[in-house]
Amino acid sequence: MLVKEILASTSEPVFSFEFFPPKKHEDWEKLFRTISELIPYNPSYVSVTYGAGGSTRTRTHDLVTRIQKETGLTVVSHLTCICSEKKEIGEILDNYRKHGITNVLALRGDLPPGVDSYAEATKDFPHAIDLVHFIVENFPDIGIGVAGFPEGHPETPNRLKEIEYLREKVDAGADYIVTQLFFDNRDFFDFAERCSLAGIDVPIVPGIMPVTTKKGLIRMSELALGARIPSKLLRQVLEAENDEEVAKIGIEWATAQAQEMIDNHIGGIHFYTLNNAEATRRIFENISTARTA
């Protein structure tokens, strides 16, 4: 089933989870235990990421096809422009179609180590819109999602231009937008309003990730795409005595974010799980408690 059909088929919030391919072979079964623990929460679909420069490309494809085969879940595979050629992308999409996988997230992607120039790494697909065009023209039955940036894209400080580029991807054939993680819902609602003003009318799915360790919070702020940490959240985390307390704070914060989205009738929420079922499970239990209280 296409993600756009899933999002249009219900008035209830659509929940989805994101995983990444493990680097170590022995971690694959651990990941599938995580997935099995989250299946009872009825995700409408799951997605699988790429590493920088497609460094986990083979593992991504292996994971996508295994999830599809063994769980029956709708799977969205990330595809990136970085270090990708048209012939290779065509072969990947042919293989996906043979396995019943009909959804991808089209991204430019991050540069791999040792590559200094995007021009060097994106000869066939300079931008995500070029990947969208290729998929629409050659694989019209494949559903396409694209990324959105509630806090603004760091390489496009002009927010009017940023939204214009996003609208062009939608006009080219993208079915929905899933956002990068954020911690202040005001950023998401402002972003969604900017999209509306620009005439973007596809679903916009907020991406939420709970903080579970102090180190993780620092890492999130250091990522190339960054994440603004609200002072209230930062104070709570810095004053926490240990990571167990940090996880409790992060889960409560993410629960509040998700509940506000539900209260405002946002059509879907995408959870970045970091391949860990516990935090996501507790968020869902908190949401369920809040909705039945």
Descriptive notes:
The chain is an alpha/beta fold and 293 residues long. It has a single domain, classed as TIM Barrel. The protein contains twelve helices and eight strands. 39% of the residues are buried. The model has no long low-confidence stretch (mean pLDDT 89).
**Architecture in CATH?**
Alpha-Beta Barrel
Shape field: globular
The largest sheet has its strands arranged as 1-2-3-4-5-6-7-8
CATH class call: Alpha Beta
How do the helices and strands follow one another from N- to C-terminus? HEHEHEHEHHEHEHEHHHEH
Largest sheet: 8 strands, parallel, barrel
State the CATH topology. Answer: TIM Barrel
The total tally of domains equals 1
Topology:
Blueprint: H1 3-8, E1 14-19, H2 27-38, E2 45-48, H3 57-71, E3 75-80, H4 86-98, E4 103-107, H5 118-121, H6 128-138, E5 143-148, H7 159-172, E6 176-181, H8 185-197, E7 204-208, H9 214-222, H10 231-239, H11 243-263, E8 268-272, H12 277-292
Helix pairs in contact: 2-12, 6-7, 10-11, 11-12
Keywords:
49% helix; alpha/beta; 8 strands; TIM Barrel; 293 residues
Describe the structure in brief.
By secondary structure, the protein is α/β, with parallel strands linked by helices.
